[in-house]
Amino acid sequence: MTAGLAMAPWVADQARLLLAQNGHAWLLHGPSGLGQYDLALSLASAWLCDRPSGEGACGHCGSCHAIDVRTHADLAVLMPETVLIERGWPLGEKAQAEIDDKKRKASREIRVEAMRETIEFSQRTSARGRAKVVLVYPAERMNHVTANALLKTLEEPPGDVKFVLATEASHLLLPTIRSRCMGHAMAWPEMSAALDWLAAQGFPPADARALLRIAGGRPDDALLLGRSGPPAESWPRLPRALARGDVGALSGFTPAQAITVLQKLCHDLLSQGCGAPPRFFDAADLPETSARMSIARLSGWAQSLARAARTAEHPFNPGLALEDLATQAHHIFHLP
Asked: Is there a contact between 48 and 55 (Cβ–Cβ < 8 Å)?
């Protein structure tokens, strides 16, 4: 689970459902923000727990404690190094030394070296005498070499090892990986349940609703926006601020965050132009002039934003990048 958070009720429901079924490999798939990581870790914890129940792991035994402190000898967590660092999992000694010595940056892909270590782990005897678990997240970050290395182990798994792969882009996985796992499509929570959960994390009702809307109904994404993005009350004002040419409208965003929110705004403007309701903003939040914007103009903007997204993580000057994005948005609203 995400550190410091109780498991969301809709994730707990799915954990109980999957734990009642047999299978050595699960593939949890769906859009971002639905709890893939939390569900994967919940399954791993239950499989390794000393006193498991139909509800999942007990949360109090030595195995559960070892997972909490990221030291369980029978759990291999296979993630990009950037995600390991973000979620508090340790890197291998060699990888940590290379990054500390600035010989290289933390990888955004699952490295083949880590996969080889994981395959070796799967062939060892269980340290605690129960089972061994390999958790892969986000699974789409495996390149073809890494994925093929995992495939061989999935095809002929050692007797006591279980796999749980979690992904936000299952179409990027090798078909052979998908075919060797039992698939589970992540459930979307009811709006009321998601709002209650966000309220339990400390967000006022109005903020929770605004965050959930801009996140497209995905609670984990809404939580991330609420903790690392601009104040929730600024979201509804964003489209009109950009239309006025307020270059400060994107202050507080990283370039990657700004591109994402502009893509959502562009999506809503395109929807509006086709006669469909907006998804991420209320219709009242969109400038009146947006109703007259041409589909061709908005399609061009969408393509420009897609190109910008491919280089969003490059070491550009963030202030200049945000100013350029805001200026482009202002021009889109005011082109003849």
From this structure: no
